[in-house]
Amino acid sequence: MSATAPVPTLLEAIDVTRTYTLGRDVQVPALRGVTFRVDHGDSVAIIGSSGSGKSTLLNLLGALDRPTTGEVLYDGRDVQDRSDAELAQLRNQRIGFVFQSFHLLPRLTAVDNVVLPLVYRPGSARDRRERAIAALESVGLGDRLDHRPTELSGGQQQRVAMARALVTEPALILADEPTGNLDTTTGDEIMSLLEQLHQERGTALVVITHEAEIAERADRRIELRDGVIVGGDLDMVEAGST
Ligand SMILES: Nc1ncnc2c1ncn2[C@@H]1O[C@H](COP(=O)(O)OP(=O)(O)O)[C@@H](O)[C@H]1O
Ligand SMILES: [Mg+2]
């Protein structure tokens, strides 16, 4: 499909729709046909007002959900053709997630939260702990290893979430309004860390944001409205669907 693309394609969404069913007969068409490509090393901002379908799209890109119609291809293979176990493995091995509300486990220390994605990996418990510590050090939290989420500030909790996302060395980080619960200064620090990860390790980055300033810093932008792409760097979107 994009075998001639100069940069290898990481994932493609082709004419995806997602309709939620509420109760017995209320249909909510959250996405109404979106075509979109993410290359290795890409950086994309998804913008659009509340309810436009941004989180729905991110969940499909992250194989957290399946489209109602259309295809989401990872390495050229449709997620529909994969079992739940295969999708769990895909998420664990290729993708790091960062959410607005951090999604840390409250009873676990910072280091234990970061160890979690590694538990199904080969290697000793000690190796996993060392990798988690290195990830926390890389986000500036080497001195907060044994703190629980409630013992950390919002910005620090988001750093733990970032360490958890990057500890597996994913090809892609998906971030859903990662600065939405943070003050401007702290949000800037989180965005700088994400950009550093993108630039230094070549991790592809897809970030949903309300903030124009953050969107401007991405290599390209996609604007959603009412479940369709209405703007952004459309030439690159179309290039992905040839
Ligand atoms: N689980 C769900 N069940 C029903 N409707 C939903 C669900 N999740 C989202 N929606 C609806 O789908 C639309 C898109 O939601 P969402 O993707 O969360 O938008 P955004 O992230 O851009 O704010 C909204 O109208 C929302 O109310
Ligand atoms: Mg959302």
What is the terminal separation in angstroms? 7 Å
Give the overall pLDDT as a whole number. Answer: 92
**What is the CATH-assigned architecture?**
3-Layer(aba) Sandwich
The unreliable regions are 235-242
Describe the strand arrangement of the main beta sheet, using strand numbers. Answer: 6-7-8-3-9-10
CATH superfamily: P-loop containing nucleotide triphosphate hydrolases
Bound ligands: adenosine-5'-diphosphate, magnesium ion
Main sheet attributes: strand count, strand direction, barrel closure: 6 strands, mixed
Question: Would you report the number of β strands?
Answer: 10
Measured as a percent range, the helix fraction is 25-40%
What fraction of the residues are assigned to beta strands by DSSP? 25-35%
Whole-number tally of structural domains: 1
Rg on CA atoms, Å? 18 Å
This entry's quaternary arrangement is: single chain
How do the helices and strands follow one another from N- to C-terminus? EEEHEEHEHHHEHEHEEH
The helix/strand class is alpha/beta
Gross morphology is: globular
CATH first level: which class?
Alpha Beta
Fold-level CATH name: Rossmann fold
| Count of alpha and pi helical runs | 8
